[in-house]
Amino acid sequence: MNRARAASNTPAPGQARPGVSDRARTLLLLLLLLLLPPLAGAGPRILVVTGGDSDVYRQMLDSVRAGIDGFCPDVATPDCAPRLIEKGLDDGILERLGQEGERWSLIVTVGIEAARALQAREIRVPVLNTLIPRSAAAELGLSPAGEEGSRSAVFIDQPLRRQLQLIPLIRPERHRLGVLLGPTTRDSAAAVRLDGRELGLQVQVREVDDGDKVGQAVRRILSRSDVLLALPDPLVYNRWTIVNIMLSSYHSRVPVIGFSAAYVRSGAVAAVYSTPEDVGRHVSDLIRRFLADPRRRLPAPQYPRYFHVRINTQVAHSLGIELPSADDVQRRLEALEGP
Prior knowledge:
Oligomer: single chain
CATH class of the largest domain: Alpha Beta
Protein name: ABC transporter substrate-binding protein
Helix content: 25-40%
Structural class: alpha/beta
Distance between the termini: 92 Å
Largest sheet: 6 strands, mixed
CATH superfamily of the largest domain: Response regulator
CATH architecture of the largest domain: 3-Layer(aba) Sandwich
Pfam family, one: ABC_sub_bind
Number of domains: 2
CATH topology of the largest domain: Rossmann fold
InterPro entries: ABC_transpt-TYRBP-like
Number of helices: 13
């Protein structure tokens, strides 16, 4: 009887011993799981396409990462934080977007080259262009007065109203404003006159379309102005003209309001501008808003929300102008714009 019981428990040739194969399979599965790489997170994937490698791009992207760090659009989903995956134009990412488009929740372009490259392709993923000039909006099919949609931008330029509001804050007793426009900024003429008039300014606008005539146009407009507002037009304001413009304004004792910190260092009395970190902070705000929106819509193209003011006290003193501090001017500008 015992022999029969023992014989019945003995596996036939080629048959695994009962229980051994189950344990082996379990151990093998555990070993494979340990060897596999960690599973990708469940959070939204954001593709960042850069037009090159520069300090400006790096500073902006570092600011974006800091702004979305720890943000979770869906707390019910494990590992729901968004992930930025950065690719350059030379990585071949554009050629793969047709097959990989569904992998991305949003595409962020950095710089005008990346924006143009994306514009030339039919992409179904929402695109947020950053660090592009306002003058490129039409070329990229963007309308600042547009509605929410699948394409938007954060411009690098300052809104005209903000630049004009700076003038009464630093020269409240002077009202004649000179503005020299070129081909890129010519479309701003009507807005400059309208917004300037609302701020109590007497706006003198002169247009120039020939680089050889910039010097003459500057001298003429300085003779009729108390302040010269510089707008970013490459024909008018560039490395070949800036020295002569600053010298002419200094000799005419007419302060220049620039559009970058570099212009203040070159002799402008003041400027309002946005740093790469400022733009990155705004971009992170828009990403958070986009991911939290069930419709996944982007707002209309926008100017940078955050900005800095810089003042050249040495030039102001030489011109006999007493200016408030840059921090004071910035606080007052922020108050004018509201929350």
